[in-house]
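Run log // design_07
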């Protein structure tokens, strides 16, 4: 398998932080996205994921063995399928996926020594719009020329 699909319209975790006197939390949009994936929460420092007991972790299930035996720096391709034509920042959309990859222990870290995020084309498009089936395709490339 050379790519995986993770369902759900990927929100920006960077622009969706809510600061309160009790700490910094994800927005309702990000919390809803995580819940749909079967993730209650995650901790990047300890690389842990809090999962629901009665709900499958769709993120872990979707990624399967794609990242087993990965060599660093890993060139990870992202092709986003959005639910509307509204504009989005590629690097912000990548952030929550990269955080989940680290928290699940699929990659060591999301810094440039471990992961190089690149967009990749599908049918001549850098991203796709599909209201019925939004999500993100992930692919690990052997070298940067394959991503171009």
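design_07 sequence
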């Amino acid at each position: 398998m050379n790519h995986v699909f993770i369902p759900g319209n990927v929100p920006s975790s960077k622009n969706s932080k809510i600061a309160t006197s009790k700490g910094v939390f994800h927005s309702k949009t990000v919390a809803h996205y995580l819940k749909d994936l079967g993730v209650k929460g995650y901790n990047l420092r300890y690389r842990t994921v809090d999962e629901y007991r009665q709900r499958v972790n769709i993120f872990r299930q979707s990624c399967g063995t794609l990242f087993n035996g990965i060599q660093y720096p890993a060139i990870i391709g992202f092709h986003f399928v959005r639910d509307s034509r509204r504009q989005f920042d590629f690097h912000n959309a990548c952030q929550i996926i990269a955080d989940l990859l680290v928290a699940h222990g699929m990659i060591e870290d999301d810094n440039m020594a471990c992961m190089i995020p690149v967009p990749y084309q599908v049918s001549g498009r850098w991203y796709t719009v599909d209201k019925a089936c939004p999500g993100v395709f992930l692919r690990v490339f052997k070298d940067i020329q394959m991503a171009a």
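Residues 90-103 form the longest helix (14 residues).
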